Amino acid sequence: MRERIENKQAEIAVVGLGYIGLPTAVMFANSGFNVIGYEIRREVVEKISSGTAHIVEPEINELLQKAIKSGRLKVTSDPEDIKGKDIYIICVQTPLREDKTPNLEYLKSAVKTVAKAMKKGSLVIIESTVPPLTTVRMAELIEDLTGFKAGRDFYMVHAPERVMPGRIFKELVYNSRILGGITKESADLAEILYRAFVKGQIFKTDSITSEMVKLMENTFRDVNIALANEFAFLAHQYGINVFEAIELANTHPRVKIHVPGIGVGGHCLPKDPYLLLSSAKEDFGLIEKAREINESMPLMAKDLLFDAFRMINLPPEEAVVTVLGLAYKGNSDDTRNSPAYAFIEVIKDDVKEVRSYDPYVDGTHKTLEEAVKGSDAIVIATDHSQFKWLNWEELRKLMRNKIIVDGRHIIDRPPKGFIFKGIGRGEY
Ligand code: SAJ
């Protein structure tokens, strides 16, 4: 197996062609491996086969077309096509259920598909983010289904993805990588494999540690954002601009306060703290409290908006509100767990009409002007670059009442002629 990987003769199947699976399949194919991408959504397979990615990511279509043209990347939705491969890389989602417990059904179903297809000696890699202990449990599931013995008849590794949407192809190469093997040999083999394109450092450990590392990274960010959000909340009470305070605090060499805002979205940060806690018997409560703070941020934006309505005696039920940005982060089309939707949800029953506009995502309106015409308030929910350079003078003329609520600190100096409110902008 070692030589087969070193010589790039090892055949790879990537299971799940989403935000991580597709770029990973493309990278391995362009590094010289024969790769088959397996995806149950047929329409996605068709789109990818024609050389167009179903996700927005810089460089993806060029790199995908290169991989397909070279003949090294094929895609399928037929499980027969992934039989007998040397390596299986599972990149499926691990979302939360309504009650915030992990839903591992996609992962289990992918593992079952792999168990049916794999051969003795295969290396199975899970890139999905999973609760601690999951990789060991999935190895046991494979043992049950195949009769193989983990560590002897097959290798298994948790290799968490750590890339940020919008920078995936750079970060796949330059970020460091954690490889958690259920045996040392498993991690050693995965190291040779990932070296095909990873230029960052590679650290090897056991699978429970790597599962924990991945969850700790995102929980670190989530808890830090919650702290910044709490500072924003306090800044309103003390009547100061939290962004000025943060900038000044961050001049201290050991302080790096995050950015407060209307909420924390995406497929990772809102869920990973719950995955981290899900396998534990007890905890101190900090992580859950941080989640609670971040999940309450759309309500802070609502309070600011309704304050503004009160200032002009506008009954909320007569108000038309335009939400600018639906993606969970700037310059992206990704709307997974976007706080923009959470915000719309908390205001929609109290106002007359909610409109939305996003240059990357289908909203209620196709153009900014249409979305703003006759509206009473603009609420900025995403930090798209375009929104930094809006012609406020023109937009003001289109609006009925002139309210701005900045949920993403896009506006530094409030434009003239508006009632301006912003999360953390207690001074206005
Ligand atoms: N956000 C804030 N304040 C901040 C930073 C972010 O409110 O100071 C918000 C963003 O607006 C966004 C959300 O948090 O709604 C998450 O955005 P993000 O840019 O922090 O992260 P993701 O979800 O795009 O990617 C994260 C990354 N993890 C870390 O930076 C620790 C990425 O490296 C991971 O690979 C990814 O999660 C993942 O897949 O786990």
TrEMBL record:
InterPro entries linked to this entry: 6-PGluconate_DH-like_C_sf (IPR008927), NAD(P)-bd_dom_sf (IPR036291), UDP-Glc/GDP-Man (IPR017476), UDP-Glc/GDP-Man_DH_C (IPR014027), UDP-Glc/GDP-Man_DH_C_sf (IPR036220), UDP-Glc/GDP-Man_DH_dimer (IPR014026), UDP-Glc/GDP-Man_DH_N (IPR001732), UDP-sugar_DH (IPR053627)
Family: Belongs to the UDP-glucose/GDP-mannose dehydrogenase family.
GO MF terms, alphabetically ordered: NAD binding; oxidoreductase activity, acting on the CH-CH group of donors, NAD or NADP as acceptor; UDP-N-acetyl-D-mannosamine dehydrogenase activity
Keywords: Membrane, NAD, Oxidoreductase, Transmembrane, Transmembrane helix
Keyword Transmembrane attached: yes
Enzyme class: oxidoreductase
Domain UDP-glucose/GDP-mannose dehydrogenase C-terminal: from-to ranges: 322-413
SMART domains (UniProt xref): UDPG_MGDP_dh_C (SM00984)
Protein name (database record): UDP-N-acetyl-D-mannosamine dehydrogenase
Substrates-to-products reaction catalysed: UDP-N-acetyl-alpha-D-mannosamine + 2 NAD(+) + H2O = UDP-N-acetyl-alpha-D-mannosaminouronate + 2 NADH + 3 H(+)
One example of a Gene Ontology biological process annotation: polysaccharide biosynthetic process
Keyword Transmembrane: yes
Domain of life: Archaea
EC number: 1.1.1.336
Residue intervals passing through the bilayer: 12-33
Organism: Thermococcus paralvinellae
